[in-house]
Amino acid sequence: MTSNNDQSEILTIEESPLKVYLDGCAAGKIRYQVDPDGKPVFFPRLFAPGSGGNIEWREATGAGTVYAATTIHPRGGDPYNVVLVDMDEGFRMMSTVRGTESGADVPIGMRVTASMEDIDGEQRPVFVEATEGA
Amino acid sequence: MERTVIVGVAESDLGLVPEGTTPGDLMAQAVMRAVDDAGIALSDIDGLFASTTELTMPALTVAEYLGINLRYLDGTQIGGSSFMAHLNHARGAISAGLCDVAVVTHGSTQRSVGRAKASPQEMPPYEAPYRPINPVSAYGLAASRYLHEFGATREHLAEVAVSAREWAKLNPKAFKQDDLTVDEVLSAPMVSSPLGVRDCCLVTDGGAAAIVMSESRAKSLGLKPIYILGVAEAASHRFVSNMPDLTTTAAAISGKRAFDDAGLKPEDVDVAELYDAFTITTLLFLENLGFCKRGEAAEFVKDGNIKPGGSFPVNTNGGGLSYCHPGMYGLLLIVEATRQLRGECGDRQVPGAEIALAHGNGGVLSSQCTVILGTEPTR
């Protein structure tokens, strides 16, 4: 119990979840979280969704499988893909797959691996098709 | 909870409205038309439920415009399904005695002012770097997954657009009335695969209003009621990267709750108005609401079942794809469902319709709200 309704020690934000994530990206790491039952959580939060329980940071291997894929055809611009990747650790994130034929759809189910890329001045995970046996 | 009914519905002007027309003009216009439709006085309204993407405080804008004394204001904004939620909140408020005569309203000038200005899209920091075009990319992702899981094709999606156009040809107010073929849908410019331009809803101006009161008040005033038999709200995420299963929307939850609320089953529904922001949504809602088994909506639509004269009339006004889509489309679904039950739909009337379902979708398949209406209090 805190006195005088001082709740400042509950869920104190020393570093925002986004900053921890981006700092991880800058260090070449994809950080995600797990709840008290070990269930993966993404996007990063202050506490576990559903239960409000504690949440812990983990680091993903970068291996995943394309769950859904769309190719965007901007008026007057080059097409590019946006995908949802199911990471091997059990969370899902939005990203893009590099090295595919321009305008072609990324196959759902394709195994992919992450690497960091500078997007608008920040390191962010993007994916390429995994090599055999990866 | 006291039984609540819809006693008046109206569209505002639709399509492209005169220069300078504001969302407030369209909402107020629709409210006055609904007041006229119901046969009540504007000053009878004491509860207001309003939403639009173009105003930060739409309930205040409409209250100011109407100049009436309100006891209850609600500006719930959960996207295109907001108005189904408003119906739910209105029946709760009426039942609790917090207001007696509620109006739900919406208005948008997104064709006049442009979609980017009318419906600014916020982007979460975990999606923004990859430049999805919301909302269409989220629906493209869902469509990609649907085609992958069930072996469906872009032709199946195109059949949804063609079915909507066939209905639109029967609705004098529909924005698009010209012929549309599957080949034309397939050859239209791609936007966010597998969705092309003709898989996407219209960008129109428009608005609507619906007036809700208790059954007892409607009877005492001698008004013809359409009964709100069931309503349910559900939400599964805000942004698509957090959607648990891209082919199972929260409509599976809202639909079941609404049917339980009404004591009805999908096979009891005579006509369904399903939020067709994109061709994929019609397929998803046919399945998630229990009208088709998983993966079977594609063939169901291809076989002509939802077209005029088909076994199951869907989106009888021509839908968001061919009739009107003013930023948020939900209230126009309720208007059409109500009119079908009143038998006012002319060439597109579903003969003898007694139970209608209006299903709203908001965000990027995020909020799902289902309304079941009937000509009688129970079946």
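qc> Chain A touches chain B through 29 residues (CB under 8 Å).
qc> done
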